[in-house]
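Sharing a chain and its predicted structure for anyone who wants a worked example. Both blocks are below, sequence first, tokens second.
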Amino acid sequence: MVTGQDYDFWLRISEIWDLECLPEVLYRYRQHEGMASVQYETEQSEFARSSLQHAVARRYGYFPKIWSRNSRMANMMRRKGRRWLARRYVWWAAGARPLGKVVAARFLLRAMILDPSTPEIWRFLRGVAGRKRSRIGLRNRDSGERNNRREQV
């Protein structure tokens, strides 16, 4: 039995259409020991990782196809524009972080090549920089230095 097909399904859908998290609960389900997600937890985790790796490989393959004349991705980019695909690559960069920083960086680089003025690229980079700064404690030091400068003026 293959488990976690719904994850692969949503990964494929996200390559073509916009997805968004909604703030309201749309459905609920009962959790119990007999659930497939409980019984096959290990297999589901392995399938999810495998699905994500296949999605990354598929998405890497889109990039060369955008420059050809007759590919599906080239036609989609002509209809939707370079910025649309750049935003996709930023979103994919965020989703690929569990597979490693290098994978995320490659997606981000593709987004920058397509349209460097895409605001999502720079928001993503600001978020990464903010997380890095908070990990090493720079955020607190910088804010303290700013407060000292204000008091001196």
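Comments welcome. The radius of gyration is 20 Å.
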